[in-house]
Amino acid sequence: MKDFNDSIYPEMVQNLPDADIPFKGVQGKLFQSKDHQIVFFTIEPIGVVAEHSHGAQWGVVFEGEMDLTIDGVTKTYKNGDRYFIPSGVKHSANFKKGTQLMDFFEDKDRYSTK
Predict the structure, then answer these.
(1) Residue 28: exposed, middle, or buried by beta-carbon count in 10 A (0-12, 13-18, 19+)?
(2) Sequence ranges of the domains in the chain
(3) Cβ proximity of 64 and 97 under 8 Å
(4) What is the pTM of this model?
(5) pLDDT > 90: what percent of the chain?
(6) Which of 1, 8, 52, 111 is 20 to 30 A from residue 14's alpha carbon, by CA?
């Protein structure tokens, strides 16, 4: 796995607490606010993340690509592409190559720290 020290992220992101991510091949750094979270991800080509839903999510791909299915519509997102998933909408992803991205979660407790 590409370590955060070898990633595109600056030291201030690398020094954030590790997020407890339940997927093998996924690392995250967690920025916690009182009412939302931002997670900086480094993701190996892990394949499919199963369909699920939660509060609203906005993200941007920094490096790599993913196929993201939102409410049954699949699009490929690459460097610089942004996406928005409304609250409660089912979505899934497919990572065929290493990807680094940031997600802003409406939920303040989407992830915890390790």
Answers:
(1) buried
(2) 4-105
(3) yes
(4) 0.94
(5) 91
(6) 52
